[in-house]
Structures are given as C-alpha cells and as structure tokens.
Task: inverse folding
C-alpha cells in the first residue's frame, strides 16, 4: 500500500 | 477525512485549549513540563514546514497554524509570563537522550531520503516520546492537578484515535504508513499507565497521586 504523499494528516 | 481522525484532531485541540485555560485561569504553570512543550514545538515546526508549500485544505492549514501558534504561546507562558511558577527542579528530563536517537533513527528509517521527508519522519518519531518529560515530572512530584490530568487524557486519546483512523484508512482507502503507525502505537502505549490512573481515579473525582 502506498504511504501518504504529501502527508495529508496533522 | 474520517470520524476517527476528526475526533483525534478535536481531542488534540481540546488538550491544547485545556492546557492554555489551566495556565491562564490559575495564572500558573505548576506541574507543567516546559521541556515537553519545547519538544511539541519542535514536532510541529518540523512537521508543518510544508505549511506554505503544499495546500491540503482550509481545515488542515488552520489547524497547523493554530497548533504552532498555541504551542509557542504556551512556551512563552511557561518561560516568561508565569516563569515564577515554573517548577524547573522537577522538570529535569534529559531531552538530549530523546532528540539524538530520534534524529539518528529518522536518518536511517524513512520513506524517502529527502530533507523534507527526513524532517517529517523526525517529527513523527519525536512526537511519540515528547510526553516523556511531562510524565517524568509527574512521577517526580508524585501528583498531577486534575486539570493537568484532563490535558494528558485528551492528548493521549488523540493519537489513540489516530490509530483507529489508520485502521479505517487501511480498509477504506488502502492507505498505510508504517512509520506513523509504529510511532503512534509507541506514543499511545506510553500513556497506558496514565490512562489507567485517570480512569480509576480522576473519573471517580480523586486526584492522581503516584506513590512518590
């Protein structure tokens, strides 16, 4: 699974 | 966005507001670890460097600005405005023992060996241990004001809710970020001892007092 790009979490 | 993450962010927001209210109302920072707040300021500064480069949403930007603004205001209250009530003798955790290993780990274990990504990874790892000086201070003083307990409960709940958010996102979106999840599990585990005390004592109107 991909990790988040860009990081969309706080 | 999902309900778990929204509740997590609201819990985080509540923690910060509870802390500010405690300081402002009692005009005292007694029992609050300035070192933990400095670590949180480092976490937010490192994590939100993309504040001006990548726009996610109005909500995301507003929360980032609020978190950064309030954590620096908290540090101002601790080290300047209410400095006389800051208990530096009990706030003696050696934060260099946290920053150096976390900094090294961020270089070794990350998603991409790029400056912004390493700094983001550093902020994730640092956040998971940033509460240690505060928990250490409570263990040294042997007690925590009830309002401080509420602050810690809200702060601990925020990352526990994020764990639920990551489970949801894994099944709903196929999203998975091992670094954030592992650090989030460590961070939540560090609060377990406190959660137990909070639920067995504070919820019954008692004060948290550790065997000194």
Result:
């Amino acid at each position: 699974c991909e990790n988040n790009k860009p990081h969309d979490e706080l | 966005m999902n309900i778990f993450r929204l509740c997590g962010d609201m819990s985080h927001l509540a923690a910060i507001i509870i802390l500010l209210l405690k300081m402002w109302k009692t005009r005292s920072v007694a029992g609050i670890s300035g070192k933990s707040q400095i670590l949180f300021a480092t976490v937010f500064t490192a994590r939100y460097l993309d504040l001006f480069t990548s726009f996610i949403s109005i909500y995301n930007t507003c929360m980032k600005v609020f978190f950064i603004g309030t954590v620096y205001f908290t540090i101002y209250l601790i080290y300047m405005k209410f400095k006389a009530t800051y208990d530096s003798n009990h706030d003696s955790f050696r934060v260099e023992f946290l920053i150096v290993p976390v900094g090294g780990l961020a270089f070794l274990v990350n998603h991409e060996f790029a400056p912004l990504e390493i700094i983001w990874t550093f902020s994730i790892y640092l956040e998971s241990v940033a509460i240690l000086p505060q928990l250490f201070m409570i263990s040294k003083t042997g007690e925590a004001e009830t309002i401080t307990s509420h602050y810690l409960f809200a702060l601990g709940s925020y990352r526990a809710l994020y764990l639920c958010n990551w489970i949801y996102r894994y099944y709903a979106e196929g999203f998975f970020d091992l670094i954030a999840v592992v650090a989030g599990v460590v961070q939540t585990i560090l609060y377990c001892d406190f959660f137990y005390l909070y639920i067995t004592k504070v919820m019954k109107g008692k004060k948290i007092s550790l065997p000194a």
About this structure: The longest strand of chain B covers residues 143-144. Chain B touches chain A at residues 5, 9, 12, 47, 50, 54, 56, 60, 63-64, 67, 111, 120, 162, 165, 170, 174-180 (CB under 8 Å). Residues 3-201 of chain B form one domain. Strands of chain B lie at 143-144, 208-209.
